[in-house]
Amino acid sequence: MKTHTLLMPLDMHLHLRDGVMLENVAPLTAYSFSGGIIMPNLVPPVNTLEDVKAYRARIMAAVPNDFFEPYMTLFYRNYDKAFLQSVADDITAIKLYPAGITTNSEGGVSSFDIEEMRETLEVMSELEIPLCVHGETDGFVMDREAEFMSIYELLAKNFPKLKIIMEHITTKAAVEMLDKYENLYATITVHHLLLTLDDVVGGMMKPHLFCKPIAKRPEDLDALLGVALNAHPKVMFGSDSAPHPQHKKESCGCAAGVFTAPIALQLLCEIFEQYNKLENLQDFISDNAQRIYGICPEFKEITLEKRPFVVPEHYGSVVPMYAGEVINWAIASVD
Amino acid sequence: MKTHTLLMPLDMHLHLRDGVMLENVAPLTAYSFSGGIIMPNLVPPVNTLEDVKAYRARIMAAVPNDFFEPYMTLFYRNYDKAFLQSVADDITAIKLYPAGITTNSEGGVSSFDIEEMRETLEVMSELEIPLCVHGETDGFVMDREAEFMSIYELLAKNFPKLKIIMEHITTKAAVEMLDKYENLYATITVHHLLLTLDDVVGGMMKPHLFCKPIAKRPEDLDALLGVALNAHPKVMFGSDSAPHPQHKKESCGCAAGVFTAPIALQLLCEIFEQYNKLENLQDFISDNAQRIYGICPEFKEITLEKRPFVVPEHYGSVVPMYAGEVINWAIASVD
After folding, report:
1. Nearest chain A Cα to B324, which residue?
2. Angular region, B286: left φ>0, alpha ψ -120 to 50, beta rest
3. Would you call B218 and A256 a contact, using CB atoms and an 8 Å cutoff?
4. What percent of chain A has pLDDT over 70?
5. Is B288 within the bounds of a domain?
6. pLDDT tens-digit series, residues A110-155
7. Which domain holds residue A67?
8. How far apart are CA B75 and CA B48, in angstroms?
9. Quick count: other Cβ atoms within 10 Å of Cβ B218?
10. Is there a domain that residue B18 lies in?
11. Are A171 and A137 contacting, i.e. CB atoms less than 8 angstroms apart?
């Protein structure tokens, strides 16, 4: 049987939620990943040192039997230097949301006034705290990410020493930005390496494939595959795995988010193998992230094997991507 | 109170389904419309004279107390002259579906070979039977209608005496075709005068606003409003009102179709009033269709008044567009 081994997989964009949902989903990621960048868009958002410490403790309590490092983040606001210095040791990044752009982002940034943001972003540059950005405007749904490129440029030019991560990129426009500024990086989800808008609304409408940013056009998918499969050094895997209870997905107003955490590695093997690029998956799944973030995850070795695997219909209250469907790789062992 | 009166409203693209659903939805249209072009995509499709007569009888039985004319259609296949002559008196149009493009269209046209279609389309021209077309390719969901324009051109050029109705157009590209060929006409739904893709998947995902063709970009909406509001003489109202039971809309694979029949006139008054074009609604709702199709519907006078109206949550098993929301016009009387 064909197998493939990955070392220290990292999920550089992960929603673990809180409470019962946290207890349900955190072990699924902790089982096969060495660590993950934990999104701070709880209600209320994570924006104090106490919040960070308490949320980290709740995550660790939810995964008692695994070696798993939750790389904590703060919800971006304009913070002063003293505060940033006080939290720097406890966070790995700060996540910026434009206000109201996705789930629980109401307290985000409502205007990109560089002078108002300058102190925060300069101190982050000094302290080497990366800025993770949900890069969408409030424009037409297919244009939101492309329209945000001018804001990435503004940030990249004004803060050349700030590492800026374009989160969950979905467009050719974002891929093209990667090589334009030295300090721009990106995460890509597994579902955005598989889907276009066609899969979401081209046949039946599929609520479990509905996410923000929404999957885009075929040429966008090709551009994303181009950098992921070829181990572009500035591109990292970030699942954006975003669990919602089933009733919030299958109703007259469906929440945005695709749940992929427990099948991400399997799907990535399938995609990379399909294009004969399995040898590049290690860079995408861990090595690039280690270098970009300067992190050293605990050792974990995951062996996957090529055999049919039926995706469970549910993980607790959450329906995963491809629920009930057969995928072609499965996890064989975790060491 | 502000009122507006419409004479002989016609719905030139209507799905009445069959059985219990027919009995549920047909009275809702018959109440406020003088007649409608009845889509033939039943299972199996309507494609014999007996089918047409029997379906017409079932429709009439479902609306015993109303003056309502179901303008019957056949499901397009390549028919011979003798057959078309035998059905000409019992049908108003023939509806062409590309194979598999929407609900119950599996038996449609799989390749547009003009020579194979020539006999049918020439006889239809002679007999003055309009061809109604669902104009979408099987391409990327946002491009399907625009890609179909070359097929409209092929049909319009090869059969200059055939009246070709571009059904439920959703794009600027289709609007621009209208004036390019004398024999091209169009229907527009009320939901495509209200929605863009943003409304369907830009915030929450809205299964009750999901239809085929899918709502497109803001510039497409503007182009559609441009011709509808200004009473373009080749443009008619066709609701494409497409009822599905609630459980087929709110599930992990949602069927395409927006149910608007009982609120279409109210919404149209609201839209046309908003743009100060109420005086043009009569052309859009009836007069253009009468002239294009050469039909003379029975007299019906509908008076609407401007007052808040809460759209019911359900009509039987069907959830309408804007269920539970307030719209600003209501039907005051039907004579």
Report:
1. A252
2. alpha
3. no
4. 100
5. no
6. 889 999 999 999 999 999 999 999 999 999 999 999 999 999 999 9
7. 3-334
8. 9
9. 13
10. yes
11. no
CATH of the domain at B243: 3.20.20.140
Q: Is A142 exposed, middle or buried (0-12, 13-18, 19+ CB in 10 A)?
A: buried
Contacts of B287 (CB under 8 A, 6+ apart): none
CA distance B251 to B1: 42
Task: Give this complex's ipTM.
Answer: 0.92
Nearest to B78 by CA among B61, B96, B57, B60: B96
**Residue type (1 letter), A94:** I
Kindly state the tokens that stand for A121: 């972003």
Q: Residue B333: which region, alpha, beta or left (left: phi > 0; alpha: psi -120 to 50)?
A: beta
Helical (H) or strand (E) element with B73: strand B69-75
Q: Is residue B204 part of a domain?
A: yes
Task: Give the integer Cα–Cα distance in Å for A89 and A69.
Answer: 14
- One-letter amino acid at B253 equals G
Q: How many residues does chain A have?
A: 335
Tell me the nearest-neighbour CA distance from B204 into chain A, angstroms: 5
Number of independent structural domains in chain A: 1
Which of A214, A218, A252 lies closest to B201 in CB terms? A214
Query: Which of B195, B201, B222, B254 should one mutate to test binding to chain A, selecting the residue with the greatest count of A CBs within 10 A?
Result: B201
Out of A196, A249, A323, whose CB is closest to B140?
Answer: A196
Compute the distance between CA of residue A56 and CA of residue A87 in angstroms, rounded to an integer. Answer: 13
pLDDT computed for residue B180 by the predictor: 98
In the annotation, is A138 catalytic? no
B148, B154, B157, B163 alpha-carbon torsion, rounded to 10° = -50
Is B275 a member of any domain?
A: no
Tell me which of A252, A313, A314 to substitute to probe the interface with B (most B C-beta atoms closer than 10 Å). Answer: A252
Which residues on A lie below 8 Å from B208 (Cβ)?
252
pLDDT tens per residue, range B149-186: 999 999 999 999 999 999 999 999 999 999 999 999 99
